[in-house]
């Protein structure tokens, strides 16, 4: 990339639909496009070039002065006319590497993301806990942003977000949107959520629920009558439930299960799958809605295993769906291949056959 401005390479990557950019000393500039990591340059980056890029992306002069003492660093960065980026700077083999997650300027809509109508209906909820889950790169941030955008176009609420770092920027339309970044606007996620309860919120958004303290705080916020939307890096509904229970302190696990089941409104889990025609990816969604039978099963450790079958029975009629049911729809519509459906969702049901429970 000698002589080529880093901004031009980044723009070229974004124009090709990159979701992530990798900049590493001793390697080519790489970008993740349609889930695959592909090279964008022919010349390998030197340690000096990578260090110069790191300095350009860092968010403050004070941080730049201590660059050589840093081992891990997170910030956000914007390129006018191109997009915003979530930046992670790390050391490997005594030199720098930078990973940049692309965040488009335009906030996506629920329709553009191809999410089920039941997700749109959840944006009308007045209280409760909605968890949006998926592995890294599955589009969780886009889904949360689209849900907020839906509210911001049709409702009159105060939305407070606590993010690390801020990703999509929301302007005030019909809602007032307050966005707080951990480390800049508040000390921690937990402290930010606790403070939000004193800021007259209708909706509280938590960028990452990753520990027991944050989990307890968001459940308490939902119990006070607010709608809380939180993200977790878990791949599916059942794993999410297991992770929540694992976070609960052992001595409070019984009451914790009850509190969680009563606070929960929904769990949205998602994966991005390659399209059959090779043109990009499509979202597959698993959706749990906290009906009375679901709440009862969540309270009883011996009955949690029933949740998956209850989700399957609630398909169509109640708005719930499993990955197997949604991938079967996508196969039937010719959007993904049977092989993709089987590889991602498993062989619990034949993806080529009609979904069970459809009415």
Write the SSE topology:
Layout: H1 6-15, E1 18-24, E2 30-33, E3 36-39, H2 47-57, H3 61-65, E4 72-79, E5 83-92, E6 95-103, H4 110-113, H5 117-122, E7 128-133, H6 140-154, E8 158-163, E9 176-181, H7 189-196, E10 203-206, H8 212-223, E11 227-232, H9 237-247, H10 253-263, E12 264-274, E13 281-289, H11 292-299, H12 307-313, H13 323-332, H14 338-345
Parallel strand pairs: 7-11, 7-12, 8-9, 8-10, 10-11
Antiparallel strand pairs: 1-2, 1-6, 2-3, 4-5, 5-6, 12-13
Helix pairs in contact: 7-8, 8-10, 10-11, 13-14
Explain this structure to me?
By secondary structure, the chain is α/β, with parallel strands linked by helices. It folds into two domains: 98 residues, 2-Layer Sandwich (Beta-Lactamase); 236 residues, P-loop containing nucleotide triphosphate hydrolases (Rossmann fold), CATH 3.40.50.300. The chain is built from 14 helices and 13 strands. It has a seven-stranded mixed beta sheet with strand order 9-8-10-11-7-12-13, with helices on both faces. The longest helix is centred in the middle third of the chain and has 15 residues. The protein is globular, with a radius of gyration of 21 Å. The C terminus is likely disordered.
């Amino acid at each position: 990339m000698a002589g080529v401005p880093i901004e031009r390479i980044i723009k070229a990557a974004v124009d090709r639909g990159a979701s992530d950019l990798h900049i590493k000393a001793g390697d080519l500039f790489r970008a993740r496009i349609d889930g695959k990591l592909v090279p964008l340059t022919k010349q390998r980056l030197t340690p000096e070039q990578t260090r110069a890029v790191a300095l350009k992306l860092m968010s403050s002069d004070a941080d730049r002065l201590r660059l050589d003492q840093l081992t891990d660093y997170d910030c956000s960065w914007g390129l006018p006319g191109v997009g915003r980026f979530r930046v992670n700077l790390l050391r490997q083999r005594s030199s720098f590497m930078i990973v940049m997650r692309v965040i488009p300027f335009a906030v996506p809509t629920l329709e553009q993301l191809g999410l089920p109508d039941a997700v749109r209906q959840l944006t009308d909820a007045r209280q409760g806990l909605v968890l949006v889950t998926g592995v890294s790169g599955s589009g969780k941030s886009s889904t949360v942003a689209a849900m907020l955008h839906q509210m911001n176009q049709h409702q009159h609420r105060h939305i407070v977000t606590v993010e690390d770092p801020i990703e999509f920027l929301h302007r005030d339309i019909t809602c007032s949107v307050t966005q707080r970044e951990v480390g800049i606007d508040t000390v921690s996620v937990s402290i930010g959520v606790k403070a939000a309860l004193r800021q007259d919120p209708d909706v509280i958004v938590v960028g990452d629920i990753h520990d027991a303290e944050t989990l307890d705080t968001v459940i308490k916020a939902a119990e006070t009558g607010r709608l809380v939307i939180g993200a977790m890096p878990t791949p599916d509904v059942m794993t999410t439930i297991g992770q929540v229970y694992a976070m609960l302190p052992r001595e409070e696990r019984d009451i914790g299960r009850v509190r969680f089941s009563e606070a929960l409104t929904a769990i949205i889990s998602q994966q991005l799958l390659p399209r059959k025609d090779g043109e990009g990816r499509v979202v597959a969604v698993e959706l749990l809605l906290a009906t009375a039978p679901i709440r009862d099963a969540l309270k009883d450790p011996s009955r949690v295993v029933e949740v998956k079958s209850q989700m399957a029975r609630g398909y169509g009629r109640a708005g719930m769906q499993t990955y197997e049911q949604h991938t079967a729809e996508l196969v039937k519509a010719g959007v993904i291949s049977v092989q993709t459906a089987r590889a991602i969702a498993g062989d619990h049901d034949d993806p080529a056959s009609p979904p069970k429970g459809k009415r």
